[in-house]
Amino acid sequence: MPLFYVKEVPIGAVAIMLALVASMGGFIFGYDTGQISDILLMDDFKSRFAQCGTPGDVGTCEFSMVRAGLIVSLLSIGTLVGALAGAPIADALGRRWAMIVECGVFIVGVIIQLLSFSSWQQFAVGRLVSGLGVGALSAAVPMYQAETAPPQIRGTLTATYQLFITFGILVAYCISIGTRSVSGSGSWRIVVAIGIIWALVLAVGMLFMPESPRWLAARNRIEEARRSVALSRGVSASERQTNAFVVREVEQIRMMAERERKLQAGWLTCFESKGKTRYRTFLGMALQALQQLTGANYFFYYGATVFQSVGLADSFITQIILGAVNFVCTFGGLWVLERYGRRIPLMIGGIWQSAWLFVFAAAGTVMGPVDPNEPVSEKNQSLGKLMIVAACMFILGYAMTWAPGIWILIGETFPTRTRAKQGALSTSSNWLFNFLLAFFTPFIAGDINFRYGFVFAACNLFGALVVYFFLYESSDLTLESVDDMYTDRHCKPWTSRSWAPEGYASREEYARLRGDGEKKTAIPEGDSRDSSPHSDARTGPYAAQGGPGVEKQSGNEAHGASAFDPSGEKRTESLEHREHAV
User: Fold this and answer.
1) Whole-prediction pTM value?
2) pLDDT-based confidence at 301, cuts 50/70/90?
3) CATH for 349
4) Which of 4, 202, 456, 544 would bridge 24 by S-S if both were Cys, CB 3.0 to 4.6 A apart?
5) Closest CA to 444 of 317, 544, 543, 301
6) Which residues pair with residue 552 across a beta bridge?
7) Residue-number span of the structural domain to which 249 is assigned
8) Which parts of the sequence are annotated with region: Disordered (predicted)?
């Protein structure tokens, strides 16, 4: 039974569950990101791994820029490699089993960190190994969510990945606060060890989730793909052969899989001009890099240190405030990106974030360096509060736009045959810039102090321009229709919101008529396709998607032709012709 309906299209409980369970990969990512900021300031951790002027006197222990940078950033090196490895693993094992294996890799890294007693290098290597798992998960999870989610709520379900990242960051902050009072190494070991629990939750949960129907169809396992689609639609086993939504969605996936099987896709395929594949590869990599260059991780990695440097009494509490704002506002992002699409929120978000980073940097520059041994002046207290407000307002905009939006786009921008590899390349770009920022931030901030914020402000404005000139609007479309939109030579990024599959007057009509499809299309019991020669293609939920001039279905559908063109052969030829023409 469907859990609810969106635009009169059934949505099953499994669709929600698989998104939430898979999003634990984002929680692991967020938890590992959030914990290190506070751990670097814990006394036992500093006495074991920092450089101490007087052995045993924690007051003389400080991390050098190189050591702090390596401890923080080696996670990102691991994630970079893991993201690239995630594509072949996900293609070979399937999306589900890939995530289960990657949880095991993460746990091994955590154990290495827990067994570190005096060697900071061992702790850093443990973060490197954990990063392999986190990076591979960051490539697999959005891809799995996009491939299994119903198109009507794909944006919301894929954005739960970012929601769980923010939740993981917040939980890490809260646990760090709770363990500060624990004596000895328990103050930081408890924080690190709890990460194992989250990996086990994801691994066990994925055992009960369906595999991606697109991965199954690519291996000609059509009945399993039908079962996966039916589960996400809330359709019972007895109806999955006849239900209009399931039949048409599986047929669309099957036709695309057959076409793509004929075209072998290696890594170099990601850089072919045909079908705007290269364009989309570089676009995905650019958007992921720009997400890092928004400056969000400046606060997440070094926030406690940043706010301690402006004389705030308890910088840990400030981190929790930022984490809470990040988490709560991401809920708003789920609605914003579903309601207004992808392009407009990202452009507005870039401008908003730039403005508040400018305020943050200006206030910090006016304040100047603060001596931690001297009382904070009233002026600097006011400026410090303004910086907190500016940081919170920046996080508000980021959490509602760039944070979830980029992960949604990584799942829905690429064609199926290269989606895993293009997703891996895009995610590796994210982690490369994550590493560069994590490692070099102490040096840059030490040199130009809070003027660093002006750099991020400029990057946000640049990101808004990239979105306007290069990103296509992919909301309310199936993944296959997104592919058609990018290969339509007449569609430009700034006009893409008005693009709709041929046979439809608008994207709104497309969504509405697909929602009406189950009511209008009667499929005889025992027959999995509507073979009526007079049936209207636009009455089916996936009819005429991207098809050239499709108005009627023919009886050929009953003999294996496409469900969205009078001839499946013609449909394939048309798409191939369009790709060569682009």
Assistant:
1) 0.73
2) low
3) 1.20.1250.20
4) 202
5) 301
6) 536
7) 227-261
8) 515-582
